Amino acid sequence: MTDADVKLPTFGRGLSARVLVLTILFVLVSEVLIYAPSIARFRLDWLEEKLNTAHLAILALEATPDYMIDPELEVRLLNHVGARIIALRTGDGKNLILRGSTPSLLVDVTVDLGDRGFLPLLEDGFETLWQGRNRVMRVKGYSPRAADVVVDVVFDEWPLRQAMIAYSWRVLGFSIVISLITAALLFGALQWLIIRPMRRLTGGMVAFRQDPEAERGDFGETARGDEIGVAEREFGVMQDRVRQALQQRARLAALGTAVTKINHDLRGILATARLVTDRLAESDNPEVRKLAPALLRSLDRAVDLCSDTLNFTREGPPKPEFELFALKELVDEVGESLGKLLTEGKAWISDVADHQQIRADRGQVYRILRNLGENALQMGAKTVTLRAVEVAGVLEITIADDGPGLSRKALENLFVPFKGSARAGGTGLGLAIARELMRGQGGDLRLLETGAGGAVFSLTLPAAAQVN
After folding, report:
1. pTM metric for this prediction
2. Which residues contact 246 (CB under 8 A, 6 or more apart)?
3. Whether residue 282 sits in one domain with residue 134
4. pLDDT of residue 329
5. Considering the domain boundaries, does residue 219 fall inside one?
6. Where does the UniProt annotation place the signal sequence (predicted)?
7. Average pLDDT value over all residues in the chain
8. Domain's final residue, options 180, 212, 242
């Protein structure tokens, strides 16, 4: 994908539409959870009101001496209640009944209002709604007007179902209005608090990726204290640091190109000077022969400086070529290469087991160990001891010397190119390149301790068994 292909999603495919749809969906789900108990409560209230009306209707029988009323009036009372049969039983054993002209009939469902469990009410309520035929229902329970009076009513269920359906439509309409209002409010709040800042932040990221060096946005100026504000400020800081790094990298690239050209010519000049110096070392003049070694050492340091500078100005460390080899053999080889420095009682001590294996770039590890050993010996160390320990899948190689330790200035800029030299006259490139090489192999180079008794450096690498 090219930079030009990166575009922010449209409303229909973006975060805004998803938040809107999910908000409406969640509100509707909440309304359904509210509707279920409310429809069950509506049915219960309707049935209690039916018992109350039936109780009032049957009280007409108590106004007559023989508890008998005109048949026409009895039918009118039943029609007013919407019942087929009404029966009443008092606490003292009195039984009253309004039947009208209704013959004996088969009751389809019986409801005892004394049983008001939540789940039975829900089940019975939805059963009434889903019923497609008119059933004969019998409801019995204590009258709301008298706690010791049991009222028993038989009636058609259809009017109850129609009332519940009408109530459901009212709830549905009210739920839709509530859902739209709630969704609009939530969507507006989320749009203001999250979506708009996220689109702005995403747009800034896309623009920054397309042109990192362009000055854009004011993400670091936000006053928000929440996570979005932290993300905006951190993005602003990241932009500034990456921009500075890119500018510094461009300057270093230009410097590296110039250094490479200068280094090529300078190495040729130094090679010629070294040849002349070799001839001077064979001169018959004692003074000339005495000064020639010092001049040779100076030329060697100049050549090393050119090589280190050239290596550092490359794009990055060379890609490591991993191989499995014996660490002790490599350590002994490094000790042999330091032979010209191991004079006047100086020693390179290898405390590495013969069977210790290491999987790494052999040439790079050789270069690192030699650099550390050479630094220590040139700083005045008498002995340099190398040990290797494998713990928890990590191989740690320590290089300890008994030299004077590192100066405060060296510690302040350790591993910083051109500043963190551990010895007088050094450039600091050796340690910087050594750490870069170690990290390129998945390890690290650290200074464990330093003082009057010497310095201890640590090289860590994944153990041979951990490297594929």
Report:
1. 0.45
2. 212, 213
3. no
4. 92
5. no
6. none
7. 79
8. 180
Residue with tokens 């009410």: 121
Q: Which residues pair with 379 in a beta bridge?
A: none
Query: Are the beta carbons of 256 and 313 closer than 8 angstroms?
Result: yes
* Number of domains forming the structure of the chain: 3
CA–CA gap between residue 142 and residue 400 (Å, rounded): 96
Q: Which residues neighbour 418 within 8 Å (Cβ) at sequence distance 6 or greater?
A: 427, 428, 429
Q: Is the domain of 162 the same as that of 264?
A: no
CB-CB contact of 464 with 390 (8 Å): no
Backbone angles phi, psi at 78, to 5 degrees: -65, -40
Strand partners, 5: none
Question: Over the stretch 393-402, which tens digit does the pLDDT of each residue have?
Answer: 899 999 999 9
Residues 308 and 340 in one domain: no
The answer on 342 and 276 residing in a single domain is no
- Residue 426, exposed/middle/buried by CB under 10 A (0-12, 13-18, 19+)? buried
**Full DSSP string of 398-466:** EEEE-S----HHHHHTTT-TTT--SSTT--SHHHHHHHHHHHHTT-EEEEEEEETTEEEEEEEEE-GGG
In a domain, 425, yes or no: yes
CB 309 within 8 A of CB 353: no
Say whether pLDDT at 318 is over 80. Answer: no
Strand locations in 304-356, DSSP E? 323-326, 347-351
In a domain, 139, yes or no: yes
- 317 vs 74, more confident: 74
- Decide which of 290, 312, 334 is a domain's last residue: 312
What is the pLDDT at residue 2? 47
Q: pLDDT tens for residues 323-359?
A: 999 999 999 999 988 888 888 889 999 999 988 999 9
In this structure, the strands spanning 357-360 and 444-451 are unpaired
Residues 134 and 248 in one domain: no
Query: Is residue 4 domain-resident?
Result: no
The label of the residue with tokens 């008498």 reads: 382
Reply yes or no on whether the pLDDT at 3 is more than 50: no
- Are residue 261 and residue 295 in the same domain, yes or no? yes
CATH number assigned to the domain comprising residue 455:
3.30.565.10
Q: Can you read off the two tokens belonging to residue 335?
A: 């000790």
**Of the ranges 102-106, 185-189, 370-374, which is most confident?**
370-374
Contacts for 64 with CB less than 8 Å, ≥ 6 apart: none
- 346 and 290 inside one domain: no
Find the domain containing 288 and state its range: 227-312
Question: What average pLDDT does this structure show over 274-302?
Answer: 68
d(CA 81, CA 151): 13
Both 299 and 390 in one domain: the answer is no
For residue range 110-167, what is the model confidence (pLDDT) as tens digits? 888 877 677 878 888 888 888 878 888 899 888 877 778 888 999 988 999 999 999 9
